[in-house]
Amino acid sequence: MEQSLLQFQGISKSYSSKKALRDVTFGIGAGKIVGLLGTNGSGKTTLMKIAAGLNHPSEGSVTVAGLPVGLNTKSIVSFMPDRPLTESWMKVKDAIGFYQDFYQDFDGNKAKRMLDFMNLSINDRISSLSKGMNERLQLTLALSRNAKLYLLDEPIGGVDPVARTKILDAIVEFYSEDSSLVISTHLVRDIERIFDEVIFIQNGEIVLQDEVENIRIKHGKSVDDMFKEVFAE
Ligand SMILES: Nc1ncnc2c1ncn2[C@@H]1O[C@H](COP(=O)(O)OP(=O)(O)OP(=O)(O)O)[C@@H](O)[C@H]1O
């Protein structure tokens, strides 16, 4: 069997009395764009933080490229959190410099091309950016690394619908095809066109993992219709 780039095995995570993940097992192959789809509080951020090595599971094991998640995997995983990591005093160029110093795999040329594409200037002050513009910056920072696995937590929640198309095009254009990309979102309809595979997570459990093409052929449905059906309240 082909080795997974990201493998979760029997992962559970509890926060005091709350169980955020329950016995989560799945694998993601190399070269895939995967949608991690679930409603608010379903466990998406918790799952991503565990894959990024920023949160520790209560039970189970996670590997990236066959390595247990830890210091070794942090250098090959690029995580875009749902809340900005940059400081408000920074200008865009300071944030770029910070990433460049911190990550050996940061590609300055790629960052420059992405900033142009995103209509961001290196002299923009981060505190003056709107939520959507800030997301564009965070996405630029995350995708400018030459990582093996990219984890983007709700990357376009604050971007207006018109700009979403442009941002999705940037994601597809700037990610390298031998790496994998996991994108968490509940904006399924807007993003589903770029997914190869989707994982549905509900109350901390994986309830479906399939290729998008299979969902369309087997069920005769779009991912968005399937999502609405599974998550109907
Ligand atoms: N630090 C924490 N302490 C206690 N409970 C937490 C903590 N972080 C998350 N939780 C709980 O764990 C569950 C899963 O949260 P998580 O943030 O992973 O969900 P999510 O799918 O990313 O949600 P959203 O789409 O709203 O961002 C939620 O019920 C949440 O309240």
Automatic annotation (TrEMBL):
It holds the Pfam family ABC_tran. Residues 6-228 form the ABC transporter domain. SMART domains: AAA. GO terms for molecular function: ATP binding. Gene3D superfamilies: P-loop containing nucleotide triphosphate hydrolases. Keywords: ATP-binding, Nucleotide-binding, Transport. It comes from the Bacteria. InterPro entries: AAA+_ATPase (IPR003593), ABC_transporter-like_ATP-bd (IPR003439), ABC_Transporter_VariousFunc (IPR051782), P-loop_NTPase (IPR027417). PANTHER family: ABC TRANSPORTER ATP-BINDING PROTEIN ALBC-RELATED. This is ABC transporter ATP-binding protein. It comes from Paenibacillus segetis. The lineage of its organism: Bacteria, Bacillati, Bacillota, Bacilli, Bacillales.
